[in-house]
Design goal:
The structure is a single chain. The chain is mainly beta and 929 residues long. The chain folds into six domains: 7-20 and 190-287, Immunoglobulin-like (Sandwich), CATH 2.60.40; 27-188, Sandwich (Jelly Rolls), CATH 2.60.120.260; 307-542, Alpha-Beta Barrel (TIM Barrel); 546-646, Immunoglobulin-like; 666-761, Distorted Sandwich (Beta-galactosidase, Chain A, domain 5); 770-912, no CATH class. The strands form 16 sheets. Strands 51-52-53-54-65-61-60-57-58 form a nine-stranded antiparallel β-sheet. Strands 3, 4, 6, 9, 10, 11 and 13 form a seven-stranded antiparallel β-sheet that branches. A six-stranded parallel β-sheet has the order 31-30-29-28-27-35. Helix 4 (327-339) packs parallel to helix 5 (354-363). It catalyses: Hydrolysis of terminal non-reducing beta-D-galactose residues in beta-D-galactosides.
């Protein structure tokens, strides 16, 4: 049987004079704009909803809801009832003279959903069904080359094909209508290259299938590999064209630079069709040399190294333009994903814009490219067509390492063999949320996965969605536990967080309100306009390829840190390490801020090996408060800045708190209260409970009171007495092993400073949080300035991502994922040294000499969902000082299901002996300074 293919080995360099100078490239003319940032107005008519029933104009590309037409729809089944608008488009254009005599195609990169195209009143071809796929028609015979042409496109938002609606429009995401990706004409020689598929392996093996259209028998197909700046790599490969419609070209390149997220090196392959020395057509494809291998019951290997995917799911989305994007948006998205120290992104739940894949190629991100399907799938005929369109559009991107056939039940299994048949690289196919093809990708499993799955199974473990973010839960909350487990499990290939950005759309019908459809859309690590929430920095630290083992800076500290290199190919000597000693100011101006930069030699630590980093600390380093170490990669991208305390809270408190003074303290008993006056400050304490009832100074009342109240412990302070100790007044309770085992002591110094010491026992073996509460009217709080970890709040299961320093935060009532004024004001803050509360009347300051103290600012507005997983418990009162704080859940998991850090605190001792009690010391300055 005659073969339709011919393999031509690389045999030498053949130069055809004039090829470069006279090569015929495919010509392109945009009818629309090139993206959401550069649009062209077309005539437009919408059949229903806002601004319907009349001809006007609309920018193309765009989604018409964002332009004031039709109705907004958020997934599920709403589309069938509300989303049946039809948009009619018209656009007049002239064809360049240079297009005449060529094959002219019209290309739609994406239209939602059913699209019928006419040129000069005649159909360009059959209706296209499917939103996210580039499709084209040969319109050569329909064009007027000597006059004006009319393009008409009718786009039905709801598909006439129910399987398309099931796959695309009933998902858990916003659904839109319109021509949302560019439309253009492309002119090719009649005898041309219609498609190129290539496979470039890490060892330099290069194979390409070149599909030819109307190629003459005596023509030649060739390929020349070059660098991106045009330098030739290896010899040109040539093949004589016989009657074959597909030519196979093969070459071997010695020692090519390999493509990976750490080394995204790219080349060009220049394909040329010639006849008798005359160039008929030239096509250039950008590619990378890399090998993807799936080893069953082992893992995914790229270029020989085993991959742990650190990934996120990404929708093609922007609040003001919907799914209509542009290359700058793609660059921003990819850079933010790289800034998170991620190496992978999943296209959820449809193929992306071509420019996003271009950016993933050039910046270095593994991609899981996905055929749409969300609990429903395309019928086989439709799916086959759309799969072919996706494959032809995306197949040559080196960033794509795996395909995904639908999501969460939206898998048409009849399409599975077609992926391998159509893909020259034979990349593996996943079913997201299913144990299929050797991959267990099940979504949102508990940290304790259970019998027969994940840790106890035999498939490669790679959840294509895990830690489902919602509001401030998920992503950072629990990821440290999950990642430790993923690193330890040889069958784990990492996973993909859900998801990248809050799906908040600007409602042009609601005065510009950002709508996340309640709790359905606020799932991102960043906000709709890419605002960074606290989890952004937690993920950044946890997924840093440079890992610092825990190290305390204490007596005998020698400047050595123990590191692990979690890169796959990069030695840490290629990174840049910089150190900085920092002395921060305090709220009283007693400490003068200072910084000292420290030169650090990057350590020679190979991938996945451990080693030491030596920091040459100056002899006076203990005079500084904090040490910072910043690591940047070999592309100057910051991996993270770590911080360590040098000065402990006790030293800071000792420097700030003034105890000794010549002032006289007056104490009087008024009914049930002790009234203490010192240096212009008046304090009232309950004789019964010991609580601070009232504070006043010469400027007026400070409404900080009703504390301390123990949280999840017995408020059994009893039998208070008052005495003098030198010049100090001491008011304290009496310990009783059964009735009053928690004790409270107030010490008032002549200077007006006040010390509170509480010794207490948590109320139960398991407890949500541990600490003390006070009251303060939220409406009077303006801001805080504090020394500690910041600027973002923390949760018990999201402690990483902050930095030690002095932070200023203005009051806000931000609801994470519903409003985006970050960092949030309310919540828990870690590693308190001191905090100055700036109020509408006068400030007051609280210090501690204890390490690991949290302070809590009010209670964020409560959120909930139908599963009640997210619910966050907060202490009573308004301002708290805590030694144990609560964890946070996410949309699919309660806090305790996200790992050990999400579990309740344990206090083991019920003996209630004073020496076993927890202790908290706080100092208060109510002078109004």
């Amino acid at each position: 049987m005659k073969s339709f293919c011919r393999y031509i080995a690389l045999i030498g360099l053949l130069t055809l004079a004039g090829l470069t100078s006279f090569a015929q490239q495919t010509q392109k003319m945009y009818l629309s704009g090139t993206g959401s940032d550069k649009t062209v107005n077309w005539q437009f008519h919408c059949s229903a909803g806002r601004n319907s029933g009349k001809w006007t104009t609309i920018p193309v590309p765009s989604n018409w809801e964002l332009q004031g037409f039709g109705k907004y729809n958020y997934g599920w089944a709403k589309d069938t009832a509300r989303g049946k608008e039809v948009g009619q488009y018209k656009y007049k254009f002239k064809v360049p003279a240079s297009f005449e005599g060529k094959t002219v195609q019209i290309v739609f990169e994406g239209a939602m959903t059913d699209t019928e195209v006419k040129i000069n009143g005649k159909p360009a071809g059959p209706m296209h069904q499917g939103s996210y796929y580039a499709f084209k028609y040969d319109i050569t015979s329909l064009l007027k080359f000597d006059g004006t042409n009319l393009l008409e496109a009718t786009v039905a938002k709801h598909s006439a094909n129910q399987s398309v609606n099931e796959a695309e429009r009933k998902g858990d995401f916003w659904i839109f209508g319109g021509i949302f990706r560019p439309v253009y004409l492309q002119a090719l020689p009649v005898q041309h290259i219609s498609r190129v598929t290539l496979d470039a392996q890490a060892n330099g093996s290069f194979k390409a299938d070149v599909y030819l259209k109307s190629a003459p028998v005596n023509s030649t197909a060739s390929v020349q590999i070059t660098t991106l700046n045009g330098q030739k790599v290896g010899a040109q490969v040539n093949a004589a064209v016989a009657a074959d419609s597909v030519m196979h070209l093969q070459a071997n390149i010695a020692n090519p630079k390999q493509w990976s997220p750490e080394t995204p090196d790219l080349y060009n392959a220049v394909f040329t069709l010639t006849q008798n020395g005359k160039v008929l057509h030239t096509v250039t494809k950008r590619f990378g040399f890399r090998t993807v291998e799936v080893k069953q019951r082992d893992g995914v290997y790229v270029n020989g190294f085993k991959v742990k995917f650190k990934g996120v799911n990404r929708h093609s989305f922007w609040p003001t333009t919907g799914r209509a994007l542009n290359k700058l948006r793609s660059i921003e998205d990819a850079n933010l994903i790289k800034d998170l120290n991620m190496n992978a992104v999943r296209m959820s739940h449809y193929p992306p814009d071509d420019h996003f894949l271009d950016v993933c190629d050039s910046l270095g991100l593994f991609v899981l490219d996905e055929l749409a399907g969300w609990h429903g799938h395309y019928d086989t005929q439709t799916g086959t067509k759309l799969l072919k369109e996706m494959m032809e559009h995306d197949e040559n991107h080196p960033s794509i390492v795996l395909w995904v056939n639908g999501n969460e039940g939206g898998h048409n299994v009849e399409l599975d063999p077609l992926f391998r048949k159509m893909d020259v690289q034979k990349r593996s196919v996943l079913h997201a949320w299913e144990d299929f093809g050797g991959f267990d990708t099940q979504h949102y499993r508990d940290y304790n996965y259970g019998i027969g799955t994940y840790d106890n199974g035999h498939s490669i473990v790679m959840p294509t969605e895990f830690l489902h973010g919602m509001y401030d839960g998920g992503h950072g909350a629990g990821i440290d536990d999950y990642w430790k487990m993923m690193l330890a499990n040889p069958l784990s290939a990492g996973g993909f967080l859900w998801d990248f950005a809050d799906q908040g759309v600007l409602r042009t019908d609601q005065k510009g309100r950002i709508d996340t459809e309640g709790d359905k859309g606020p799932d991102g690590i960043v906000g709709p306009f890419h605002e960074k929430e606290g989890s952004f920095f937690t993920v950044k630290e946890v997924w840093s390829p440079v890992f610092f083992e825990r190290r305390e800076i204490a007596s005998g500290f020698d400047g050595v840190f123990h590191l692990e290199n979690r890169y796959n190919v990069t030695n840490l000597n290629q990174c840049t390490f910089t150190g900085k000693l920092v002395r921060v100011s305090d709220t009283y101006g007693k400490a003068k801020p200072a910084e000292l930069n420290i030169a650090i030699t990057s350590p020679n630590i190979k991938p996945w090996e451990k080693g030491d980093l030596k920091v040459n600390m100056p002899s006076d380093f203990k005079s500084y408060d904090f040490l910072y170490i910043t690591v940047t990669d070999n592309y100057k991208r910051e991996l993270f800045t770590w911080s360590w305390p040098i000065t402990k809270p006790e030293k800071v408190a000792r420097k700030i708190v003034v105890k000794d003074g010549k002032q006289t303290i007056n104490v009087t008993g008024v009914d049930s209260l002790y009234q203490v006056s010192a240096n212009g400050i008046k304090l009232w304490f309950s004789k019964t409970s010991g609580m601070l009832e009232k504070v006043e100074n010469t400027k007026g009342i400070i409404p900080f009171n009703n504390g301390p109240v123990l949280q999840e412990g017995a408020n059994n302070f009893k039998n208070f007495t008052q005495k003098l100790e030198g010049k100090n007044v001491v008011i304290e309770s009496t310990f009783d092993r059964k009735a009053a085992y928690n004790t409270l002591q107030w010490t008032i110094y002549p200077t007006g400073w006040v010390k509170m010491q509480v010794r207490y026992f948590p109320g139960d073996y398991f407890t949500n949080f541990v600490g003390l509460n006070f009251s303060f009217p939220e409406k009077e709080m303006k801001s805080v300035e504090y020394m500690g970890s910041g600027p973002y709040r923390v949760w018990k299961n999201r402690m990483k991502g902050t930095k030690l320093g002095v932070w200023k935060k203005d009051y806000n009532d931000t609801e994470t994922g519903q409003s985006w004024n970050y960092p949030e004001f309310k919540g828990y803050h870690a590693n308190m040294y001191w905090c100055k509360f700036i109020t509408s009347s006068q400030p007051f300051t609280v210090l501690t000499d204890d390490e690991d103290t949290f302070f809590r600012l009010f209670t964020p507005k409560p959120h909930d969902d139908q599963w009640h997983n997210y619910v966050v418990k907060f202490p009573s009162g308004d301002i708290s000082f805590m030694q144990g704080i609560g964890a946070i859940g996410n949309k699919t998991l309660g806090a305790e299901d996200t790992g050990p850090m999400g579990m309740k605190h344990i206090f083991y001792d019920y003996e209630k002996e004073p020496k076993r009690a927890k202790e908290m010391n706080l100092y208060f300055d109510f002078s109004g300074r």
